[in-house]
Amino acid sequence: MSLSRHIDPEELVKRFHDSHLSEGGNNLRKLMKTSHLTPYGTRYASEAEVPKYRLPQEGAPADTVYQLIRDELDLDGKPNLNLASFVGTYMEPNANQLMAENLSKNLADNDEYPAMMAIQERCISILAHLWGATKSEKAIGTATTGSSEAIHLGGLAMKRRWQEARRAKGLDTSRPNIIMGANAQVALEKFARYFDVEARILPVSEESKFRLDPKLVEENLDENTIGVFVIMGSTYTGHFEPVEEISKILDAYQERTGIDIPIHVDAASGGFVAPFTRAKAGGPKWNFELPRVKSINTSGHKYGLVYAGVGWIIWRDESYLPEYLVFELHYLGGTERSFGLNFSRPGAQIIAQYYNLIHLGFKGYSEIMENCLSNARLLSKSLEATSWYTCVSEIHKPKSGAADVITGAKQALSGTVAESSADYIAGLPVVSFRLSDSFKKEFPNVKQEYVSLLLRARQWIIPNYALPPNENQTEILRIVVRESMSLDLLDRLITDIVAVTENLIEQQDSDLSALKHKSAGHAGGATEQPTSKGIFKRLEDGIHSEPSEATIISLTGPCELAEASPVNLLQHNTGRIDCVNSDRRPATAVLPGDAYFYRYTVTLLKELNSRRD
Ligand SMILES: Cc1ncc(COP(=O)(O)O)c(C=O)c1O
Asked: Which InterPro entries does this one have (predicted)?
């Protein structure tokens, strides 16, 4: 019997729930006794139904609600094992305390919180200085909620300056365009769409290292180009884009045509990596040392090492931020000048950023970034040493010439790696890798997405997604190595990747289709193919791809549970349920490692078995 009916989990839950409550003909709810010895014994937690989508008539005790919400949040992945994200998941206790003490401060209230405002200004000065702002110019900037807002502000400033310059000459301003690579994070394309600018998204290739191709930039420039977005740290592979090379192309273009096109550097991740590593940006300049770089953004909540909610943008001089975009507000007794998409926003993150800057200093940030890069190199070399995997990221490759994989593997195994990032190709501490060609040839049934799914069963969140359009036949697994990825944790990760791959090799002849995703994940994912002018693409969503219910529903044949109780499954945390197919062949349903899926799947399999009976 194969499962052809759709199973509605909501309906299933309701049915079991209701029948349980009326067991033996009694209304269990009415019979329930409640006390408040523990949060679970309250009327709200044990007797009353918890409304999910409407406001309860009466409230409930604080400790009960706290426990309810906390329990539900246990179903989330573990932030520290979420290797899909660049966003900080660890701060020191002192920073946590400072944040907790300042959670109620609104960054919009300039007059009320002058000390916090001064701290924001100091952060801006520190970053401007770090990124090579010159004394002869007056750098200006603002805190934002993240790089997305900062990028939108940077784009808006470029658009307005272009419009003002064209209007002054009586020229048409109806068709602005902006240039970026197909590897650009979705925030960049969003700027173009939200603010009516044509996005010229240029195809990337293996040759361009999956990043903006300077040759194509040259071909796509015209008088309506408001600027070029250049990325310091590609979201897909961590590569730094060649800012200096593109700057030179724009210099030459200006010489030929008189058209002056600015660069905005999206240093969402690289803004806190490049200045602190010995590799810097790999030699070439990338920041305000290049006159053509007019503005730079970064995410304080990525390698700035703060929790989510803070970004920064700095213009090299106030003349690059058109007056028209700056608002003077007379508010709560004071006058404030603001430039931002939001009004109210949290101030605690800015305080936390300042804490990090002062506490860590240049040396502290350098040590952390070198450490992240060193761990990322170790991971890359270990993966390549298995010969099952090939790295697409390149931070583990020596700067001079091609990577010496064998030496790298030996070094990784013997632990004799003593170099710094200066010896390697510059980039973010990101490891993007794929199954090697030889592995795919030998084990054609093993799909790369299975690796991601099986690792999820061990609680690691490692996305598998396609490279940008025109290279999207290649899928990569990506691991962001953050500060919290210690060497010990890295050992566990490498061990688990090896174990999972061995497991897949052993099961290569089994039917693994049950593991398949309904739809593959994408890093900002491609929806359209690039045209010759390179204009098109991508989904809004990020890289994460959650296992879908289809994983389970697509199991064929009735199944017998080897371990019937959800408690067993949760306790053993094995991440798998052994079943037999109708022809009695063993089958293994390997499940994602969160409790919701265990519970759901167990219920579902019970239901399947009862139907068979
Ligand atoms: C290169 C790049 N730009 C922009 C963003 C968006 O940053 P945020 O999440 O801070 O808005 C990201 C996020 O990953 C990124 O990697």
From this structure: Glutamate_decarboxylase (IPR010107), PyrdxlP-dep_de-COase (IPR002129), PyrdxlP-dep_Trfase (IPR015424), PyrdxlP-dep_Trfase_major (IPR015421)
